[in-house]
Amino acid sequence: MTILVTGSAGHLGEALMRTLRAQSRWVRGIDIKPSAFTDMVGSIGDRAFVRQVMSGISQVIHAATLHKPHVATHDNRDFLDINIAGTLNLLEEAVAADVASFVFTSTTSTFGAALTPAAGEPAAWVTEDVLPVAKNIYGVTKLAAEGVCELFARKSGLPVVILRTSRFFPENDDDPDIRNGYSPENAQANELLHRRVDISDVAGAHLLALEKAPAIGFGRYIISATTPFSSGDLAEIRRDAPDVVERLFPGASALYASRGWKMFPALDRVYVNARAKRELGWQPRYDFRFVLDCLRENREWRSPLALDVGSKGYHDQTFVEGPYPVR
């Protein structure tokens, strides 16, 4: 049983390839870029290439995509060709190959404008039932690709699981206020409270989804670190997040101060992973409490897999205004 991983040269693709190879699983990685984790080089937009790589495949993890950082450097047509048409190619060839399960890596960016409440409103409590309001071509095409996946699950009987992952990239934030006010480690530790997940936990969720897809048939799940907040905290974290964090984790502010870190003053959203934990049996390890435990013991809080994959960037060039240009 061979697993196909698309986007094998990317952050998640490499993490999946490393994980599957470490388990001695049969796996085939494909990407448009050669890498130590890419077995076949080509584009998912090329139907003939997709047909070729699908030979002998029993399960598919589709992680290849154009991302938000590509919005300013790629045309809308590129997003349509890769994120929608490429996904369609994979789905059609997966059905033809009678694969047992198909896992599609989506993004919490599909929620778009639904993630930012109006001024004075509580932070958003984001579950799978929140209605997406896409903000850019990235969100539009990922949401459309989700729809195509659901169509194939219903019409062709292909077992499909969609995973809406929150942030797991290690690069600096594209927001200049965050980038200039917080170190990357500080900002990303803060984000584990509400909008980030370690790549090791993401990889684990994908492997569980592969296993569970035939029984689920079709499912859509948010993949983000377990938040310590409840829905009753939403108004307060929008006004004074540090106070809520200190109430939930006494001594956290002192630990942060010892490292020269600081908490975000306010949070605008909280991603809720309860459905993924319940239905996939997913148990993410790397959360904010884990960070604090590591700070107390002066040890690394990121997973070994996150450190192995490291920072890749999204472009072959660098940009003066930040890690990538923002349109």
UniProtKB/TrEMBL annotation:
Protein name: NAD-dependent epimerase
Pfam families according to UniProt: Epimerase
Native source organism of the sequence: Rhizobium anhuiense
InterPro entries: Epimerase_deHydtase, Lipid_A_modif_metabolic_enz, NAD(P)-bd_dom_sf
Top-rank lineage group of the source organism: Bacteria
Lineage: Bacteria, Pseudomonadati, Pseudomonadota, Alphaproteobacteria, Hyphomicrobiales
Residue ranges annotated for the NAD-dependent epimerase/dehydratase domain, each copy included: 3-212
